[in-house]
Amino acid sequence: MDGITPYQSVNKIRLVTAASLFDGHDATINIMRRILQSTGAEVIHLGHNRSVEEIVNCAIQEDVQGIALTSYQGGHMEYFKYMYDLLQERGAGHIKIFGGGGGVFLPDEITELQAYGICKIYSPDDGRKMGLQGMINHMMQECDFSLTEREIGAGADKVKQIARLISAAEQDKYIPTPVPRTSLRIPVLGITGTGGSGKSSLVDEIVRRYLLHTDKTLAIISVDPSKRKTGGALLGDRIRMNAINSPRIYMRSLATRQANLALSKYVQEAIDICKAAGYDMVIVETSGIGQSDTMITDYCDLSLYVMTPEFGAATQLEKIDMLDFADLVALNKFDKRGALDAIRDVRKQYKRNHMLFDAKDDELPVYGTMASQFNDPGMNTLFAALMRTVKDKTGVSLLKNKVADDEQKSESEKIYIIPPDRIRYLAEIAESSVAYTNWVNEQCRIAQQLFQINGTIETLKGQTTVNSTESNKRMSDGLTDIYRHLEEHLHPDCRRLLKEWPETVARYKADNFIYKVRDKEIRQPLHYLSLSQLKVPKVALPKYEAWGDVLRWLLTENVPGEFPYAAGVFPLKREGEDPTRMFAGEGGPERTNKRFHYVSLGQPAHRLSTAFDSVTLYGEDPHTRPDIYGKIGNSGVSIATLDDAKKLYSGFDLCHPSTSVSMTINGPAPMLLGFFMNAAIDQQCEKYITENNLQHLVEAKFKEMYDDKGLQRPVYGASPKPSPEERALKPAVSGKRGFETADLAFWEILKANSRDNRKNPTDAETVLWQRFRNNQIGFKIRRQHAIDGYIADFVCIPKGLVIEIDGGYHQLTTEQDEVRTRVLNGEGFDVIRFDNDEVLNNTEQVIQKITEVLNKQPDRKVLSSGEDLGEAFSTGALPPGNNGLGLMLLGLTGDQVLPADVYEKIKAQAISAVRGTVQADILKEDQAQNTCIFSTEFALRMMGDIQQYFIQEKVRNFYSVSISGYHIAEAGANPITQLAFTLANGFTYVEYYLSRGMHIDDFAPNLSFFFSNGIDPEYAVIGRVARRIWAKAIKNKYKGNDRSQKLKYHIQTSGRSLHAQEIDFNDIRTTLQALYAIYDNCNSLHTNAYDEAITTPTEESVRRAMAIQLIINRELGLAKNENPIQGAFIIEELTDLVEEAVLAEFKAINDRGGVLGAMETMYQRSKIQEESLYYETLKHNGEYPIIGVNTFLNKKGSPTIVPAEVIRATEQEKQAQIHNLDQFHQRNQHKAESLLKQLQVTAISGGNIFNSLMEVCKYCSLGQISHALYEVGGQYRRNM
User: Fold this and answer.
1) Residues 839, 840, 843, 845, CA torsion sign
2) Which of 758, 1030, 1162, 1175 is most buried by its number of CB atoms within 10 A?
């Protein structure tokens, strides 16, 4: 590779490879580990999303020389330093650390990390200079040292000693010590089986149950084959294991280091070492074996043979020696076709081998299992049998309690996502589409013949000569008979379309177009008047006259809003609302809220698209642990609680028809959706409270839940604020202007009085604050503001005005009021006072007076601006455009303030009105992006629960899933593969929801799609092809109604086409991609900023990205027409070609068992990677020209641009998120535990999980909910 000879090492080199925590980008590390293997390294590959602790534990247990990591999600400084520190702390400082992440690492960061002790961070320049093999050679050379020659230290812990002893054994340097007699009773379980039978997953499931049902320790020795040619090895068993990161578990991976054998010759030494170390049980897992291999039985007390139903003919079983020797047999992957027949045959063979002809099937130690399915009954049965067999054969009882009888007797039962009889759904869709095309061709042929016959008849009628009249009549009558005969074969729908065509043409020539949406009449103009005074039609129709041509156009294209929706799903675009949807997310919720208001300022519609940080994407809470801390608020917004969601979307009425929110979240989508829905509900509760003057109820609830318990009220603002008890008020200082000696005593009283009452605003203060917060008077007013230790009711700093409310709780004498006024005057403030009752009874007059005073008051510089304590109702500094909506109930929920019936009514109205999308596409995550956190079956079940909830609660305006091709394209897929995989995933959801008993018309309108737009020709038609395939399938195969047939989709311009060279050119590419999208009538659009290739977008670059859309939509004349690409020969040809290619891909997926079957063999991942490699190869050799990258370079060679500064979350924002989370946990601890248990009961009992989440999300954080669900639904198991 790269023409560089692979390094030949002196010592056997072992390395751990992984992608960092909350990072799903595993393509690069997979390439690196493959080259490491081919260079002779033994690689323990952990895959993506690995914490520092997991990697360090693994590295020490495996006794490796090095760790190689990729990190693309930010937080790398903290991550790598923490890893270095942890290795040093655990006496493993000899382990070298290597890393890379493209342009994510800035040059000065690389320098800093290498100075800190990281061996090497490889930069893009290193890649260009050294090549891949050169980097691997450097890594191997750095790690080419003997481990056994290094001292591990007298105080080394047991794990390190075990690891080093096994390493010594592998180098023939181990001197065996006598095994204590107590160790002789330590059972050794040997697990063997064919390659690909799922042994590692099965071991992981045994370990999970072992930890649950025993209090014992366990050692695992896992063996994988060495490559005969290179000596390298992939030690990949750990990647499949989720349960082993426990102090009670030790695992060591061994390479065979010999050809054609399933075990290392050092296995016995490894077993003896683990026994001597005192582990209560040892599991030895072999590499894949052949039919005659029984070596494992020489090393174990009992053996388990793992096989699959795909062993061929029953006679093959007679050749498998392990069926003679195994104490237990697991027929894994029991969901495979023919599994029941297979287990019957295996049991028959077992009976023959062991002469058990009279034994009943359920008495035989042969079990059907599905290790990939969480809490599989068959696995439960196998584990119970395994523990019994251990006791019977060794006399050792490991269980702390008896495994339940039902677990001992249950059979594996597949939880089918797609029922077996529906597995051909993609082929049926392709066949249905082809049948429709054939039908169209036939109908158009008939229509064309009818047109020709009709024309002939009309011509004959026009012939009026004497001699021709009779013959013309005879011919005409004959033709009329043929016409009537043909007309009978023309479908009634086709006859109707042709009959209505003249009316359709006339309707689009009118001045206005009138149509209905959900019984609401919409009237829009049909023409745009150009500067030249030409009336440009919004929809242009073909001028076809032949009936065959007209019918073909109507059946394959049609006007926007009509089947098959090639030109769009709505008759006309919504006026006053461009399809702009800008993506934002960085730091805490306040910073992203500010960005949302920036991109929405002056826009008639608010279409927000939310990017979440990687901590949130993986369902975890912010934490001080460095590998988590560094990622808080980077590359997305940090959201962990309902309060965070309220801050994030504050100032936007989430239930207003012109507001729409998209959330790019997948694994933890149900929880984020729960936060969002509750934020929307509480906003509407706020409006109800304000409209009905019920603010006093809110204040009473705050007092009860916070003040009386000494808890801090949550606030909008990035800085964590200490509680009042933690903050000392400023002392009064004598000698200032306006002070007299006698005033000081009174001043101390005033301060003390303020301290006692500052958390208890009067009803009048509450009413005024609502008006101030909504910016009703036009000036920024601060609440509960400390001035020289005294807390004023309200202050306007720029105007130097203090607003005081007398009466109520605050009873001061006239003399004290005078002192207060003099002191405040001395600080540069004027004072205006109102009586408590005056405010309550004449609120509008008071507001008017305050406004008049502020307008007359000159701007002034005050001596002390004081200190904003931010206690009662404080919202911090709201960005322009944020009116504070959503913050009144920060820390509360509407049902805590309002009567139950009122709240339920508001809730029902809110969730039925809220508009937006949650991505929640778990199939795409497994295929391309890797932010899966739950087992696939459980994740899909929660998706179904969300949709079931939407149907039940009549949620019609919110999309329950955004079926996403964008991330498939970003991973490297070409446009046809992106479209085919995405539509296939969509139809998989359709089949799953149908299997759950939902009706197509109840859920199809809640599905939306999300595509990338690149610059390839196929992108010009990606939307129209998607709409056409979807519409035909839903109408003809699933019998869905018009609304269900309409595919709505969002476009984001290609992030992959943004290059770090000549970044100014990126806007040109983005403009062309946006033009594709708008011409193809996308429903919403995000244009990437030109500098996203090197940094987080700035306000300037985001403004330019928005301008691209605005210029196309508002300035570009042709874009005033809404079907500009219809009728172009190349567009029609491309449409047909792409559709045919997509249907061919459907058939390819169908041949692999549908989408889920193809995922098992990793078909989608492999295809995406192959296409990515093809693109990168052409880009590298210049065959695929990219301006400013590999051609048309500037005089400097168009070097990669390194940003001077990268925008990342601040320390203050990270600390604020952790502080706010701690406060949230503290105040909700009384309810969180019981609610989480109720959630688990709902999941186990088959109830609707999302229905429970709507309540749980009010009191529990994201991480709490994720971990509770892991226990009942299982974590995602990584693939190689």
Assistant:
1) negative
2) 1030
